[in-house]
Design brief:
Blueprint: H1 7-15, E1 18-19, E2 25-26, H2 31-43, H3 45-52, E3 58-62, H4 66-79, H5 100-123, E4 129-133, H6 134-139, H7 141-151, H8 174-191
Parallel strand pairs: 3-4
Antiparallel strand pairs: 1-2
Length: 193
């Protein structure tokens, strides 16, 4: 999805999103695509109503540790492995070496995207948005699942476990990412202007 994507195609995408039994559609929209939708909504009442109308609810998830997020992004861009669902030892990113300048470039993109997400979340009516950090969710996702249920007007579960691992994603390249983190921190201390 980009600025040239026709309105009809965006609406088609919206209508093909996964529908659960209650009739809710859900999807994951990254910052660049969100920016496109937001701009298109300014020109199209139908796009505005479909994606930002009173029946649209937004869950905005951000990361606290921007440096680790930037390292993951730089690794993904270099390896082509953005998400992995299998055995981490089989992922193609475990041998990827990233340089401090690659991390710096990713960090700049992450910081701008994070500011965009924060601004976007504040621009929505409070009853239609829930914004939280992924890191907090992973520490107590029972709490956040109930907040999501409240936002979408689903029943909440007071007995939700404090920690439920529902993730299918497998963290990959952790050793290389730890090394890149240390290397970048040392580089930044020596090279910051």
């Amino acid at each position: 999805m980009d600025a040239t994507t026709p309105t009809s195609e965006l609406l088609d995408i919206a209508h093909k999103l996964y529908l659960d039994r209650s009739g809710y559609a859900s999807g994951k929209i990254m910052c660049k695509a969100l920016s496109v939708l937001h701009k298109k909504a300014l020109l199209s009442p139908e796009i505005k109503n479909t994606f930002f109308g009173e029946n649209a609810f937004w869950i905005v998830v951000r990361r606290k540790d921007k440096l680790r997020q930037a390292i993951s992004l730089a690794t993904a861009e270099k390896s082509g492995v953005y998400h992995f669902y299998g055995d981490a030892s089989n992922a193609d990113d475990k041998e990827v070496a990233i340089e401090p300048l690659e991390i710096e470039r990713s960090l700049k993109a992450i910081m701008l995207s994070d500011l965009y997400l924060e601004t976007f979340a504040r621009s929505l009516p409070q009853r239609q948005v829930l914004s939280f950090f992924y890191d907090d969710f992973m520490q107590d996702n029972g709490k956040y699942l109930n907040l999501i249920n409240e936002l979408c007007q689903f029943p909440t579960d007071p007995d939700a476990l404090p920690v439920m691992n529902l993730a299918r994603l497998t963290p990959t390249g952790q050793s290389g990412k730890r090394d890149a983190y240390e290397k970048f921190c040392a580089w930044l201390l020596e090279n910051y202007d």
